[in-house]
Amino acid sequence: MTTGRIELGPTGRTVAANVKRLRGERGLTLRALAAALKEVGRPLSADALNKIENGAPDTEPGKSGEPKPVRRVDVDDLMALAVVLQVPVITLLLPASVRGFVELTGVGEIRGRIAWRWAQGRVPLEWPEEADQEERRKLLAMYLMAATPDGIGWDQTTQEGQRAAVEVFKGWAEEEGGERGPSVD
Question: Which InterPro entries does this one have (predicted)?
Answer without folding.
Answer: Lambda_DNA-bd_dom_sf (IPR010982)
